[in-house]
Amino acid sequence: MRAQVALCLSLFLFATGVFGIKLQITSRQKKVGRLPADTQPEESALETGFSDSRAKRGFSQASPDGRRQSAGRSPSRRSDWISEISASPLETPSSATSTGRSGTYAVDRTQQRRPVWNRFRAVQTHFARLAWRLCRPFICPSVRRRFRHTEHGPIPAVNFRMGLETGQAALADYCGMLRLTEREACTETAQQVSDLLISTQVMPPDRNLVFESLFNPGSRVNLTRGELLGCGGTSNVYSMTQEDGTKVAVKILSSYAQMTNLASVLSAGASAMKIMRREAGISELLGNQDLDDILYNDRLLVPSDVLRLPGKNDWFFPEQSTVIYNFFLAFPIAAGTLEDVVPLLDTTQKSFAARVSATVQMVKVVAGLHRKGLVHGDLKPSNFLVSNSGIVLLGDFSYAYVRGQMSTFPIITWAFFSPENIRMATQFSQVRVELTHDSWMLAFTIYFLWCGRLPWGIAIEEGDYRKIVAILDQNTPETLNFHNCNGIPAGIQQLIRLLLAKDPSRRWTPEKAIAELNIFKLNRSEYAAQT
Question: Which of 237, 347, 426, 449 is deepest in the core (most CB within 10 A)?
Fold first, then answer.
């Protein structure tokens, strides 16, 4: 009798699971655009994430730009996961509460009005996963592989072909040297503490961890934690290895908050979730849901997925003053940052070619971002990444803005801020976001690439904005010193000065520089003739 009941139950679960998987496959073959006008959120996608959309994942053979194209794999579904994040009391302290598997959440009542069909689909997904676990040992490997492809695919590697840019090979050689050098540890005390807490209590190194995907609900991702790649003011980035051996970069957000002060905890959590949503939703603002095109055509390094540890709360309190959030941004991994490459460059012709190539590529990628109506807001050497093949990518969109919106600039890296934005930030007043905000930061980054220092002797780690403002008030672009700058061409000197105009209305944008300056039309031998 028990055997018959078990057999009937197994057949029922199998039938339900096959039906559920069929629904998933059918839904993935349909293209879903933006939400209807009457359901669009009032805030911009920068503030609230992105709507239900689909993005192609995976690669296959060759294409003109050197990437691999999709080989018969269906697009992965990027669901509207933002409702799960908005359900945290860190985000909605005044909303109604309900109890979930990861603790007590404060759920906005508008999120509870979900169609009955969506709830039925959730039940179908649950039964499909249960049936798959029960029946998987009895399914032949070929069928098993077919079903596995409908689940979460691996995050792809960055794979550009050579010959796309002048000087690309020289820059690729220096990127190869990065593998032979040790990365510097975090210098900020807060991030050193976060690294220690993450390694000891949240994600121990060299341990296989199972994450759930928020872009593909119901999918699991197996990653093994590796070394620390870098750290910033609010995050640490680690190298992790997928089951197929491909490495990815995973950003873990953390913040400082006084546990005894509820307002401090809520404020820190709201700020961290806003940063995470802003960066995870950047592909929606780019108007291109294909992550491959964003990477290989726009050369922007955006998150491929948002992961979380299942069965855990949305945040960890491993130490009384540190909060680590259970939402992790996963990216394709690059060879390193421009900040890592600069110390390897010298006065040789190969270094000259690498600097020229990096300069041209940085200007082009920022100009491309501006053409889409976005302002990066935090350009600096550590946010320009370089692939193994010498292609410069732009990453870290935690502080991206839509051109023309009114906003207050957060305090990020004082040394790279323009004088007008420093004054606005210190006064906490709103300013209209313009493209020239990036122009100033780009000029500082190019100067650092060639000279190994910032203009007018400003220290990168300088945190006293009064000193920075005093230095900027005493100097003009004409007083820039290009001595000991590794033979920087006159055309690039002109570019830097035009991007550093004190008057924002006279300051050039990268797109204007590409259109009007000859440095983007010269070949390598002509560059060498200018030195």
Answer: 449
